[in-house]
Design a protein that fits this description.
1053 residues, Beta-Lactamase, 7 domains, six-stranded antiparallel β-sheet, 38% helix, flat, kinase, phosphorelay sensor kinase activity, ATP-binding, Sig_transdc_resp-reg_receiver, nucleotide-binding
Length: 1053
């Protein structure tokens, strides 16, 4: 039933709508009906009693398979959506069956929070059935395959017949061959034979790849079966032509075609028998052939006689009746032949458009709905368009008024006919003040309010806002506008807001809605006072009219009137006047321009801000302007300005510091990651040599010469490995992302020999022939970095071994070449040539980039960093590296390095480390050393090394026991202390501090040497600060140990 907010006029309009119409009140996710028009009960087959107790969330009568989808869509609408369109099955009580119902709904939220849902129900059952009829696809049944030879004399002789054709024709394969062996057309029905021959001849000259022919074939029982023969022509050398035929039984398909034809005829019959008082034109056309088949014109305008029987001409003529140019073009783009056929190809079988037309025999126009269903014509496959044109003028006006029916919170809603100077109240709040009568003369009502009601200061604005001429002028672009005024309600000044919205200006129809905004205006004044304490100024722009109101802090606090203007863009020069310096005046104006503000808010509805320099008398300040919507309907734009000079200064300082810290952190992190990744590859090579030589030494334990050779090679590889590990642990190098080259004497033959001792076992294990060839070297000794050169060459040689298949060879040549600039310089070339898999050009182009590897070597382990390390080290040494390679032909690397020559009197070949001459006597003989070491194996190794020099050792397992042993012995008992750092109970640093702090005479002078696996510079520094005399890194190097003991014990002596 209708609420008091609905009057009789509105009810009469809604009652005339042919579709079911409902208005629901939304309360806590449930729907309560307020109004149902008569068509509602007819469409849904409901009784009035059902409607009174029905809540939509109960889903009375909804098919159980459709209920979940309806619940989901309805929840989406009630959860914040604006519209709903859903089709489901509802049980029709009168018909006793389920009917397909299309539900279209629109949710409106009013100012007081009340929500209404407007829903339209339409029965689309027949439409769904028709769509289903014409969506059926015809499927071919399995058939047979035949290969025939097309002779020059025109005869067709079969070469192959499949079992499938025999099954299709109800014969055995033997009988089929007997029937067709002389002529492949023997079994064709006599009535079809001539047509089949014509189709075959047409196919042979058409040049097409495929061809289809339908005809009848003889069955074993004497009857005939309809088949579709799909032909493919193959021409062989010498001009021989063969046709490959695929047969499909078409009996059921032809029966289906007959059924579809009957449905098609029934569809057209129902269409032309449609009885609807709003139908203007019905008919159907063959769009493919551009021909009108039948057309019924109920307009009385003689459309068929005026526009002709050619379909394209007829629809072009119809388009001239469309008043709006854009609608006219859209009509043509929808219903003319080419776009209609294109739509059918895309599967768009229903074309609907609502347009405003003016018929030749009418003074005023009307709204019509043009519906065209596209179907495929049985047999021919032509596209048929079934046309219906409906008059929807009253429905359109009713719908547009319904869109304004968010009536809760409005004093009234009125439909104004400017041409007749009349109005009708659609809805009103009877409790509101000064509401007009239900209908009357528009201009009379305006004059009466101007004389008594509207306060004097607002009368001119009220008159201008409701003047018919001004209304049409302001609404001509289709935009709503709003104005406010104050009126006297028995001594209480109330503020009203009138919204003027176009319904259809071609018919002179507009909608007026008035709301009371007194409370919101008063609340706005309170909010402005709050804003005044946090911001400098606030401005409000009416997005529709462009009017502008601006409040400054002084205006609000001193209750001064705000600055107002009817055109915001006209004050842009004044608004942008003091902004500038780095920003031009025109740029500032563009930032404040209303079009710019609206465009940015469309991109960021939540609002945005920008900061501009602001020049005052003696300084430059920075102002932040926040731009945001002032209401939920996006009708008002708010500008709020604050001074952010001090805040920006603090933020910039903090940001600068954070960016600097972040940059340093990233650089350190990248350096660590790159360096550690590179080392991962290089550490494995000497480890392989160590493990391999250890295995060989065990296997040849009875051969002292072989064991000694293995131990020498293990020593060389372990030395190289130790150097690599020391570099990994050099944290200062990693953090600075720098590698410092050492300057040391290098004896090239020894270096080549050491590299060979590392690579040769790998090559042997891989089944490769490895050649190490020193070339002509005039200057065998030069200054350079042994570790880095070894790293370069081992990396390249390691790759050669990895990427060369078993049975191949790796050749390493070291030679001195001309080209060194200046005296005292030598240039060396190192050539590594393999017979491996080689590389493609695209791989060579990026070979020295990090992580680059050929796709062909995914089976080979590696990080892809090796050659990037090689390139970096070579560049650091001022040398060059190049490569030549072809797939499956091997690869050759050339490394050229320069070095300062060591004079012949300053160098000697490297030899194995030997014990000092004083070992076993002299300086070390009889000396006693206290060792603090918690690891038994490490302690055993150190004791054995020292015993070889004649040193007596005592071992304690932690720092506390070592301190106790030192002070328990008489002064001078121990000649030195070897102190491990990381030990239980007490570490080496603490033990050294305790000893040094004691007053005993030898506690201050006894040599204390730190032993630790930590190679950081900070660890060395900490050891020195704890009172130690020297630092030895683990694993212990024998020569370094003897040299260190000689230094500290010699100094003591």
């Amino acid at each position: 039933m209708m609420t008091t907010a609905m009057n009789k006029e509105l009810k009469s309009v809604l009652d005339g709508i042919p579709s079911g119409m409902c208005i629901y009140r939304v309360d806590q996710g449930r729907l309560y009906p307020l109004y149902h028009n008569p068509a509602f009960f007819k469409v849904l087959g409901l009784s009035n009693r059902h409607a009174q107790v029905m809540e939509q969330v109960d889903f009375i009568g909804v098919h159980e398979d459709d209920r979940a989808a309806l619940q989901l869509n309805l929840a989406g609408l009630l959860g914040g959506g604006e519209s709903l369109r859903h089709t489901c099955r509802l049980f029709h009580d009168e018909l006793g069956e389920y009917r397909w119902i299309c539900i279209e709904g629109s949710r409106r939220v009013h100012h007081d929070g009340t929500e209404l849902l407007y829903a339209v129900y339409s029965d689309v059952t027949e439409q769904r059935r028709m769509e289903q009829y014409f969506q059926n696809t015809l499927k071919n049944l399995p058939g047979g395959v035949v290969v025939v030879r097309y002779e020059k004399d025109g005869s067709i002789v079969p070469e192959y017949i499949s079992e499938g054709l025999a099954v299709t024709t109800g014969m055995t394969l033997k009988d089929t061959w007997e029937l067709y062996q002389e002529d492949a057309l023997t079994g064709v029905h006599p009535d079809d034979l001539e047509g089949v021959r014509r189709q075959l001849d047409a196919y042979l000259v058409s040049g097409k790849n495929h061809w289809e022919i339908e005809y009848r074939l003889l069955k074993g029982n004497g009857e005939y079966v309809w088949v579709k023969n799909t032909l493919s022509l193959i021409e062989h050398e010498g001009g021989e032509r063969k046709i490959y035929s695929t047969f499909n039984d078409m009996t059921k398909e032809r029966e289906e075609r007959a059924r579809v034809r009957q449905q098609y005829d029934d569809l057209l019959l129902r269409h032309h028998q449609r009885s609807d008082p709003n139908v203007l034109v019905t008919g159907h056309c063959n769009i493919t052939q551009d021909r009108i088949i039948q057309m019924s014109d109920q307009t009385g305008a003689g459309l068929l006689e005026a526009f002709g029987a050619v379909r394209e001409d007829f629809f072009i003529g119809l388009s001239t009746l469309v008043e709006d140019e854009e609608e006219r073009q859209s009509f043509r783009n929808t219903y003319l032949r080419a776009p209609a056929l294109a739509a059918f190809e895309r599967g768009e079988t229903k074309r609907t458009q609502d347009v405003f037309v003016k018929l030749p025999n009418e003074e005023t126009g009307r709204y019509v709905r043009v519906e065209m269903n596209l179907v495929s014509t049985p047999d021919s496959g032509d596209v048929t368009g079934i046309l219906t044109v409906l008059d929807i003028t009253e429905q359109t006006i009713s719908n547009r008024i319904s869109c304004q029916l968010s009536v809760t919170g409005y004093d009234f809603v009125a439909d104004v006919d400017l041409r007749r100077d009349t109005y009708k109240i659609i809805s009103l709040d009877e409790k509101a003040c000064c509401v007009p009568p239900h209908q009357g003369v528009h201009s009379f009502r305006v004059d009466r309010l101007l004389q008594s009601g509207v306060v004097p200061r607002d009368r001119e604005q009220f008159r201008d806002g409701l003047n018919p001429g001004r209304m049409l002028e302001r609404l001509k672009h289709g935009q709503t506008y709003t104005f406010s005024y104050s009126m006297d309600d028995n001594g209480d000044i109330r503020t009203k807001n009138i919204t003027v919205a176009p319904i259809d200006l071609r018919l002179g129809r507009v909608c007026l809605s008035r709301t009371d905004i007194t409370d919101s205006i008063r609340e706005q004044q309170r909010l402005l006072r709050v804003i005044a304490y946090t911001c400098e100024l606030a401005g409000f722009i009416d997005a529709a009219s462009g009017s502008f109101i601006m409040y400054t802090r002084q205006m609000i606090l001193e209750n001064l009137p705000p600055h107002t203007t009817q055109n915001y863009n006209e004050v842009l020069d004044n608004l942008a006047g003091c902004y500038g310096t780095a920003v031009s005046h025109e740029e500032v104006k563009h930032m404040f321009c209303l079009e710019t503000l609206l465009h940015r808010l469309a991109e960021k509805p939540e609002g945005y801000d920008f900061v501009l320099p602001y020049q005052v008398t003696d300084s430059l300040r920075y102002k932040q302007v926040n731009v945001l919507w002032g209401d939920q309907n996006h009708k008002t734009v708010c500008l709020v300005r604050s001074d952010v000079t001090d805040m920006l200064a603090a933020e910039r300082a903090a940001k600068t510091e954070l960016e600097r810290a972040l940059k340093l952190s990233r650089e350190a992190s990248l350096a660590k990651s790159d360096f550690l990744s590179a080392m991962s590859h290089d550490i494995r090579t000497p480890m392989n040599a160590i493990m391999g030589m250890t295995t060989l030494a065990k296997a040849n334990s009875g051969d002292p010469v072989r064991v000694l050779d293995c131990l020498q090679k293990i020593s060389a590889a372990s030395g190289h490995l130790l150097n690599l590990i020391n570099d990994v642990l050099d944290m200062n190098k990693i953090e600075r992302a720098q590698i410092t080259l050492n300057r040391e004497k290098i004896y090239l033959p020894d270096l080549i020999e050491q590299i060979g001792e590392i690579i040769a076992p790998q090559a042997e294990q891989a089944g490769l022939c490895c050649e190490i060839l020193p070339g002509g070297i005039r200057n065998p000794c030069f200054y350079g970095d042994t570790l880095r050169i070894s790293q370069i060459l081992i990396n390249i040689l390691g790759n050669a071994v990895k990427f060369t298949p078993r049975g191949g060879s790796v050749r390493f040549l070291a030679e001195e070449i001309p080209g060194a600039a200046g005296s005292g310089q030598a240039c060396y070339r190192f050539t590594v040539r393999d017979t491996g898999i080689g590389m493609a050009k695209e791989t060579l182009d990026h070979l020295f980039e990090p992580f680059v590897r050929s796709r062909a070597v995914s089976r080979v382990e590696g990080t892809g960093l090796g050659l990037s390390i090689v390139k970096g080290l070579v560049d650091l040494m001022g040398g060059s590296v190049s490569v030549r390679s072809e797939p499956e032909k091997g690869t050759t690397f050339f490394v050229e390095l320069k070095g300062e020559v060591v004079e012949s009197g300053e160098w000697r070949p490297l030899r194995e480390p030997q014990l000092p001459e004083t070992a076993g006597k002299g300086l070390f003989t009889g000396r006693r050393i206290l060792i603090a070491e918690d690891n038994e194996i490490n302690a055993e190794i150190i004791c054995e090394i020292l015993r070889m020099c004649g040193i007596i050792t005592e071992v304690e397992s932690n720092g506390a026991l070592a301190v106790e042993a030192f002070f328990s012995a008489a002064p001078g008992t121990y000649d030195a202390i070897l102190m491990d750092i990381q030990m239980p109970e007490m570490d080496g640093y603490e033990a050294a501090r305790i000893i040094r702090a004691d007053g005993r005479t030898d506690a201050k002078v006894i040599p204390i040497i730190a032993m630790t696996a930590n190679a950081f510079e900070q660890d060395v520094k900490t050891a020195m600060e704890a009172g130690m005399d020297a630092h030895i890194a683990k694993p212990i190097d024998v020569n370094i140990l003897y040299e260190t003991l000689t230094q500290v014990m010699g100094r003591e002596a």
